[in-house]
Amino acid sequence: MSTQQNGKGQQGQNDMTTQRRKNEANLRVALQYYSSYGKLNDDHSLEQVSAGLASLEFMKRNCPEGTKLEDFCIQSGQYFEYEQYKYGDIIFHYGDIGDKVYVILKGEVAVLVPRSESEIEGEREEISLAKQPFDYEMFWKNKKPIKQIHIEVLLAQTNSNVYFQNNVCMFKKVFQFYSGQSFGDVALISDKPRTASILVTSDQIFLISMCKKDFKILCEKSVLEMNQTLDYFVKLFPNVGRMQITKFIQFFHKIDFPPQQLLWREGEQIKFFVLIYKGRVEIKQSQQPLYQVSDYSFIGHEEILEGMQFRQYTCKTLDNTTLYFMEYEDFNSARKNAPDIVKLLIEKAKLMTSYLEQRKDEVKKGQIYVEPLILPVERRLVKDMFVIKSPRKNEIRSNQPKCLSYFDITKFNKSKAKPNNINTQQSISEDLFFSKEKNIKTTRSPSNFTQKISPINKQMKNILMKKFKLNFKFNALNSFQISACKSVYEFSSKSRFKTEPSIDN
């Protein structure tokens, strides 16, 4: 296992070196101009550096929607200021107030965070047993990586009790930034003190910086998205401190995928894991669907935590899906800063692994159609519920699914329609007429059964009845034409039947 991890680590180092050199080539012109002038104000200089700045992930991430990237780079380029440091310098310290964001044009820095009390006490006990006089580099030789020893020696030379006390280093390296990358924006967005120290590890480093005020004006989109992301993860990890969450989520990237998009195939090399923000994905193994997962679900982290090198299953999206993804190397760095979050991920990984094994057993036994982890929500539209069907022959209507008859539709439309003065007067006259007829027929006097209606009254009765029947047929036909549309497209075009789209959980 260690051989595989070393091989994978070497491959990651080679990829990082290749990317760093590519970024330095893209930023060569920008470095030339900023190192010569310190700050750029004229349009010609800004146009010359805009192509290089456009290659920066920092600029792509903060460019407002609807704005061309090169135009945004020209606008933002005038707010950058050139800075330069040498090997061993600390650009800012842990706990400082954040006042700038930095973009590296050339060089490397190490990200340092305080070590845990248990690590410090362990080293103190080892050092107390060492022979005197104590040689720091010789004592830790073959016990720590050479790069780590060099960093600790640099911190010892700062003559600060914050970084080095009694031959014990109080900080450790958790990550590094190189040419083309940015750092320092987390403290500006959250308005919190710096969560790490930045140490220069290359012979020299050349940067451009932007002050907090200009950053918040130009990069409003990034500030808003970062705050929304932080609120989302605070709800996801309610028992974890905001500072620890901030350190963890800075390595996450948000991305959208269409339906039926493969995230990875079974047998591929593990490069990242994902958190489903919104949408649904399906897990398959040997072309056999196992289960589906939806919002707030982590996928792929269990393989990283178990130290696997290749994917054990295939993962693809089922709906329009928004994901947060974190690369393999970034996760190894982030897990050192967020032990509480890692514990929760380990618990989720155990549940996912046990469920996966259970599904495998069910598939082997032929129980393929067992209930999945999350069922898709049934989408029932209005047009599906208002289909008018005639009753089948030789079947009782009450035993069939409930349908709307013509009379039901007419009655419904009449109940929702506003009263009309003419119809009101007509209904009053009809009520008076039928109430008069009722009185004639239900009176107790025997003579009333035999009394004759005058010719005028009989003529009036016929006129009213014809008028009533014609009006009833007209209203019924008119209502049916409004409600019972001839096609689905006609039906969906009626504004009063519009509904919000259904959303899968």
From TrEMBL:
Protein name, UniProt field: Cyclic nucleotide-binding domain-containing protein
UniProt-listed InterPro entries: cAMP-dep_PK_reg_su-like, cNMP-bd_dom
Cyclic nucleotide-binding domain mapped to chain residues: 85-236, 236-348
Pfam families recorded: cNMP_binding
Gene Ontology molecular functions: cAMP binding; cAMP-dependent protein kinase inhibitor activity; protein kinase A catalytic subunit binding
Top-level division of the source organism's lineage: Eukaryota
Cellular compartments per GO CC: cAMP-dependent protein kinase complex; cytosol
Region (Disordered): 1-21
Compositional bias (Low complexity): 1-14
